[in-house]
Amino acid sequence: MLVRPTASWFTAGFSAGLGLTLAYLAVQTVLRISGVLTLLLLALFVAISLEPVVAWLARRRLGRGWAVTVVIVASLALLAGFLALVIPPVSTEVSALVDAVPKWLGQLHDHHSALGRLEDRYHLVSKARQQLGSGLGPAVVGGLLGAGHLVVSAVTGTALVVILTVYFMVGMEQLKRFVYRFVPLSRRAGVVTLTEATLVRVGRYMLGNAATSAVAGLATFAWCAVLDVPYAAALGVLVALLDMVPVVGSTVGGVVVSLVALAVSFPVALGTAGFYIAFRLAEDYLIMPKAMRYAVDVHPLVTVVAVVVGGALLGIVGALIAIPVAVGIGIVLEESAFPRIDAA
User: Fold this and answer.
1) Contacts for 281 with CB less than 8 Å, ≥ 6 apart
2) Mean pLDDT over residues 183-200, rounded?
């Protein structure tokens, strides 16, 4: 009679503890690099969004390398145009603020000015000096350092996304072939067909979203130019960028432009708010269906849920990629999962 060896409680406990420790370390590692993973995911979706354009140019006898180069140059040109529109008004406002500070300081000592009367009544300068001496100074320095760190992180993240996007665009075919090798050969052909269809339709969706955002930006520029709202071009670009965020992006853009329109008059600001309400309805029922006729239809409930969940998980990046992910999941369900269930 053979006696099978049994593991001791010590061995079982040690194995379980080692497994839990490794799982904990893996989770902590993922959390620490979550920011990098988010940027990596964003770069991948940007590359997928531009893939239809790259593929179209490659079919025109350009070759994939030249097609990627053309897309990159065009994208950099758009970025340069955006900076050319935004930087001058921002620098003008900063210069005006710096020039106004000495005037405000002079008015604080003028007992006949509004600021001087406020100083006489509330002693703002002396209170500010007391706060600076009691710890506000380090807080201000810490705030400046935090703002500088935020700017550096934003610049670094943008550069990383651009570099990764270029790599993904150049090596998209090699990357797909590498991923396909993890699928058993007996099912690989079906997976390749489904994946290619999903990537094409997700790319079309993203391009359609970019087209509707461009329409929103042009409409904003035209409205602001006609009503003499300041910084019409910069506001148009801002609205176009915000409109790419589903559900809430166009609303936030409309609020921002309406607030800027207050610099002209209250009726103009009120009319601007009404314009964005009407434009939002036209975008949802006229512009978006036209732009998405070559992609897929997404139910409004799916849109809202996807954006909320994506925003909760990954912030604004999650909101941006939420609907493309939902589109991809919907295609997989319609083309693969549901037919198998119906055939069972």
Assistant:
1) none
2) 82
Sign of the dihedral defined by the CA atoms of residues 123, 126, 130, 132, in that order? positive
* Helix/strand/coil for 224: helix
Stated pTM of the model: 0.63
For residues 52 and 200, the answer to whether their CB atoms sit within 8 Å is yes
Burial 167-195 (b: 16+ CB within 10 A, else e): ebbbebeeeeeeeeeeeeeeeeeeeeeeb
Residue type, 1: M
pLDDT (tens digit per residue) in 46-75: 888 788 888 888 887 777 778 888 888 888
Tokens standing for residue 321? 């990629």
Q: How far is CA 166 from CA 51, 63, 180, 209, in A?
A: 11, 16, 21, 21
Two structure tokens written together for 297: 């239809």
Residues with Cβ within 8 Å of 214's Cβ and at least 6 positions away in sequence, in order, are: 240
Give the residue, 218 or 327, on which the prediction is more confident: 218
